[in-house]
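WARN retry 2 of 3 for item q-0093 after timeout on previous attempt; input resubmitted unchanged.
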Amino acid sequence: MNRPILLSLLILPVLPIVVSDDIASEVRQKVDATTQVLPPVVHSGAKTEVLQAASELLNNTVNFRNDGVAVTNYRRGEIRSVLEFRDLTVRQIIHGSVSPTDLERGITRRLYAQLGYSSYRSCSPGKSPWSGWQTTFCSYFPSHIVIEEIDGELRTSAERITHFTPGATTPANALSVAQMDARLIARN
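OK item q-0093 returned
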């Protein structure tokens, strides 16, 4: 390869791109018009609000047993399952963007409460027994709750949440202690 061409290929990426002030100003205005800057950290008051809102939605979806396991019923069409989640919790709160269209609809703030759990298991009553505890992601349980402030009031939603109702606090087909120990030892 010719040395002058090679040298120009090395220097070219570091040269500044010249943009007129008019174009730069227009770009800044468009970015400012479509973006609302949100605080990067959730302050403790907002954190409490978000966790309370997420908690209310979850309490309409799952029952929490004394041992920390959350139980829910999944129903969609003919599919019926009972799910149990160990250590179901909000793992993190993430700020979302608010567009000019959102602002016109009265949405002034959007946050996401990311859900997490250490493991889950499922069964289909009358059809299949309890599965073993899975440490993978349960694809049909929501991964996050959307919290939006609309006209000063927090409102929550989550994908597929309408397919879930609180489960019994003790499953009808619970594994015995011996069965649970056998499965845990087999997995170690």
